[in-house]
Design goal:
The protein has helices spanning about 1-25, 30-45, 60-75, 85-115. By secondary structure, the chain is mainly α.
Length: about 120
């Protein structure tokens, strides 16, 4: 059982690397291909009635780690230069103002409609 899990993980890593290599030519992000691969593997497991161990304990940790890796991979492609400070400032303000507006709106609704102090 342990050997099958190790071989499966190594195969998935090789497929992920292959997706990364081909994503430049196909213009499809490797993350999308990995999601499709995961969905296909899950459907195959259900179709062939393959018994898997219970991953429900470790699944939230792996999902969070995967999202962090996706964000970090995307940030590697960003190039910050002096000419981009204007758009960075506009984007920051464009994200900050709605967040404050939503916060004040929720505080108002909780205070006056919900009766909270």
């Amino acid at each position: 059982m342990t050997t099958a899990i190790i071989i499966s993980i190594c195969s998935l890593l090789l497929l992920g690397y292959l997706f990364d290599l081909t994503s430049a030519k196909t213009k499809i992000p490797s993350v999308i291909l990995l999601l499709l691969l995961g969905w296909t593997v899950r459907q195959s497991v259900m179709f062939f009635h393959i018994q898997l161990p219970d991953f429900s304990d470790i699944l939230p940790l792996l999902g969070t780690l995967g999202l962090i890796l996706i964000v970090l991979e995307g940030s590697l492609e960003l190039k910050v230069s002096k000419s981009k400070f204007g758009i960075i400032r506009k984007s920051f303000i464009g994200a900050l103002l709605p967040m404050f507006a939503l916060g004040f709106l929720l505080a108002y609704l909780f205070h006056y409609i919900g009766g909270y102090s």
